[in-house]
Amino acid sequence: MKSRIMTTISNSKEEALIVKEQDVVPLRNRVKEYGVKIGMSILNQTKLITATSELVRNLLKYGGGGKVIIESVSNGRDNGVRVTFIDNGPGIANVELAMKDGYSTGKSLGLGLPGTKRLVNEFDIKTELGNGTTVTITKWKNG
Amino acid sequence: MQNNLLSGLKEHENKLLTIWSQLLIDGGSDDGAVEEEESKEFASLFLKAAAAAEGKIQDSQEFEKVEDLIVGIASSRGKRGFSPRENAQYLITFKEAASKILSELIKDPEQLFDANLQLNAALDNMTILTFEAFMRGREDIISRQVDEISEISTPVITVWEGVVALPIIGTLDSSRTQIVMENLLQQIVDTGSSIAILDISGVPAVDSLVAQHLIKTVSATRLMGAECIISGIRPEIAQTVVHLGIDLTGIITKASLASALKTAFDMLQLSVVKRKIV
């Protein structure tokens, strides 16, 4: 049976350049505003901004900075916020390993990627060695 | 080498000053009197440099002094509340005045044009300098404020004998954690405290980096022989931390500062009792 494809409509969208640690807080506040606008609960807002925080730190630490796109999306039944993190860094050599709890090439706890996946509803990672990494997360209002 | 065409200005210093201050007043600069002293100094130094220069005025030794002076004037005017626009206007009117005198002195149009070019080159560069001086003044203020903010944003409070509390408000990044840790450990030594309470009620989100910083702070406190309690963990923070998979089981955590204080009292074998009214 063919799997049902959910069509997602993007309502409003904005881009932010992230190059230094000082850009993290304003970005997180923007993401939070998107969540507030669609009436997301405090819990889901916190999950979303924590996930954003994790990924944007990765973007800075491993990707050397990059671009973040925040979108307000809708799939007909539910509204949500989608955040895309794009960097042109070295890419991830072993995604499977990077998605494992406690694995880190830096000296961190190694929970960033797997933890983020547990915090959001949809998680997608595309990476190629030498060509950067793109991570897309979506958090639904009632997800 | 180009001839120095500006040397003639020196003899007309007084006239230049009169025209200049008239232009400044016409331009709406209200306190000509305050500026008079420094304007005189600037004009005489500039003209001296112009008279002494052999080729381009900018290359002369004297000109460095003029530049130093204008930077000083610009920053002092900045402090007195002049806008960078007014600072630039100050030099532009000087140029206008000098240009007027040059047109009276030099009759040959070609020479006059060259003289004006020299004047422009020298003064335009100085106008840029005044902007830079203004920006530097602002940047000094900003960096001083950053220092002040990071200092006042991590207050360590003695809540009881032997108990210190540190409320953290805002984001915990690496540099902030460093300050928090330093302040806390120093206060533990200074007050001889055995219990430290870290209150994170004001931290909007706890991600793995913040958690790692907290764990490190707790470990450092324990190394000093004190116990550390983390308080102010809101319900949504608790759920997020669990989903992230951060292990805080080895750390004493409390929902509120009040319950953390109660735990501290228990540890110190103190009890708070209601007084019986007889």
Automatic annotation (TrEMBL), chain A:
Transmembrane segments: none annotated. Residues 43-143 form the Histidine kinase/HSP90-like ATPase domain. CDD domains: HATPase_RsbT-like. It comes from the Bacteria. InterPro entries: HATPase_C_sf, HATPase_dom. It holds the Pfam family HATPase_c. This is Anti-sigma regulatory factor.
UniProtKB/TrEMBL annotation, chain B:
Residues 153-264 form the STAS domain. This is STAS domain-containing protein. SUPFAM superfamilies: SpoIIaa-like. Gene3D superfamilies: STAS domain. CDD domains: STAS_RsbR_RsbS_like. PANTHER family: RSBT ANTAGONIST PROTEIN RSBS-RELATED, RSBT CO-ANTAGONIST PROTEIN RSBRC. InterPro entries: Bact_StressResp_Reg (IPR051932), RsbRD_N_dom (IPR025751), STAS_dom (IPR002645), STAS_dom_sf (IPR036513). It comes from Flavobacterium panici. It holds the Pfam family RsbRD_N. Keywords: Phosphoprotein.
